[in-house]
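**User:**
If convenient, please work through this fold.
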Amino acid sequence: MYHFATGRESTVVMNPAAMNPGARPTHVGLAFVHSFAYYRRILRGIWRYVEARPQWQLTSIAPEQQPARLRGRFRPDGLIVALNTTALERALATWRRPAVNISAVFSRQRFARVGVDNVQVGRLAANHFLERGLRHFAFVGPPRHLFSTQRREAFCQALQEMGHTAACYDGAAKLEFDPLGHLWDLGPHVLRWLRKLPTPVGVFTPNDLWGVQVVLACRRADLRVPEDVAVLGVDDDDLYCELTRPRLSSIIVPAEQIGYEAVALLERLLAGEKPPCEPVLLPPAGINARRSSEVLAIEDEDVVAAVRFIREHAHRPLRVADVLEHVPLGRRTLERRCRAALGWGVAEEIRRTHVERACRLLAGTNLSMRAVASHAGFFDYRHLAVVFRKQLRTTPTAYRRQMRSPIGAEDTSG
């Protein structure tokens, strides 16, 4: 079995006792490491798919052995690869067997690819900061890696559509992607750049590793997180996010489903199907909002009080009248000031907050639909379904299937 602690190569045979003695084993190489939670979750998705295929054998390849092994005699039937280093790219230059790439570092693509929709990731980040009343925005990330450039462009585009701009830090042009996830020091130039940003500012980073570095840089620059700088990463890597002080907010990527869909696509390619012309992209599953972006950058204290009350009580049904009991304003005045600060009224803020909570519960728990409706402040499941159809143009069941289950799988949540 693959040893996660050592990262060494080994072969995993799926349920060999159940193998058909006459069936030829299918050998699949796994050319990626597990330093990031993203890849560990992908491995779970792969395991879940091949568990029902006892003839499949999975061979993980240690990172230091990848170029030599893939250029040598090692020739599995198919390959799932995180194509994110030039050495690995050169090693695969003459690869002629089916392969599926699960990385978005290089813009050039020789193989089929399965991943997250980076445009939706960037737009989700922009909306997250806008909903917190921020009016200044920035992006910090590598300028040459595809996942970073796509997320940055979508982030800036979404802000531009709302009349805002984002400052982008691009001082790490020569930084290579590190598949082992080693931390690095962004250096004094980042501190100087952060100090020049108008505050409060929302800083979006393309993954959690960059988010950790920005939080550390803010601390060294005597900038408070989140009061001066709100920080948001991507991947929801629990190790990085929970150990960072303050804890790091992060966009949730459906990595397990990506792994499942990647190996399912590989099986179709092994059966003779042609590779898809475009990458297979799955939407992000929402945001795990932690302390690093827990800010309400709204000057109107009454609107802040209203929004905070709505978010603190999102687990129960709310009406505008409930909010008015806790804010010393008339309905017309609060509506007008809420629209001036947020761009929408009190009732819309209630709906948005309830829907956001329901999405998190659907994507991250096994609660029944009735329980999700109850815990997300809806009167019943029918109410939840009506709001989802209107706001998201889908059903709660379809949303959960999309976020948590393989494409085409049955939903059994009830």
